[in-house]
Amino acid sequence: MQCSVDQCEKPVMYKSACLCQMHYFRKMRNGTTETKLEKKRREHGFSRQPRVTMPGRGYQRLYLPDHPLSDSQGYVAEHRKVVFDRIGYSLSSCELCGKPETWATVHIDHIDNDPRNNQASNLRPLCRSCNVHRLYPARHTFKSNYAISFGDVTLTAQEWARLTSGFLSGQTIARRVNSGMSAEAALFTTKATHGKNTLPPYSREGLIELARYYREEARNIRLQVESD
Question: What is the residue range of 15's domain?
């Protein structure tokens, strides 16, 4: 004889109740054979809290199991939902360095550094590197990094590499400069291996303008954090 609970194939252990051991003791504890989540779903239409504040910095998560960005538990970060609802799947590149991003890799940045402020005007897509390092001091000031100046902008080799949208790696730029090349030659010389003789997909003026924007955005963020 099987347990009388729907979809339970366990044998009956308590014949008077016609229940298996698991459902019998659950009924003794809760007064019903339903789990607490099943009871909440039946009474309120959902099985989890509709909004959860994460410990630590206080990121907000919403219970939306049908949302395209929801995780395995049915939750989606509110700041990611706000940006997705505004632009959908057509995600733009990182707003600081221009690196192409997808929803699987993008970080949604809170411009004012307040994770509870999920207004659309306060959110922007960034790559992981820009989001993680945006509050750090200028990276070319670290002794472990190699500072490369081009035009009126000084950045690290890795930062210059991101601004080239992957045309050159940071290692390639640093190696070229260490071999005696000027910064301009290191950034604009055609490739010698993969994509041999391919010209860079950017101009001198365009790269400097992007680097200035990147530098000013990073500087403004640091000033704002220091003032807070």
Answer: 1-40
CA distance linking residue 99 with residue 167, whole number of Å? 11
User: Are 125 and 146 part of one and the same domain?
Assistant: no
169 burial (CB, 10 Å; 0-12 / 13-18 / 19+) is middle
The per-residue b/e assignment along 25-45, b for 16 or more CB within 10 angstroms, e otherwise, is ebbeeeeebbeeeeeeeeeee
> Tell me, what's the pLDDT at 93?
86
* Nearest residue to 23 (alpha-carbon basis) of 43, 12, 47, 48: 12
Q: How far is CA 126 from CA 50, 134, 157, in A?
A: 27, 10, 19
Taking only Cα atoms into account, the Rg of the chain, rounded to an integer number of angstroms, comes to 27
Range 190-209 average pLDDT: 78
Q: Are residues 92 and 113 in the same domain?
A: yes
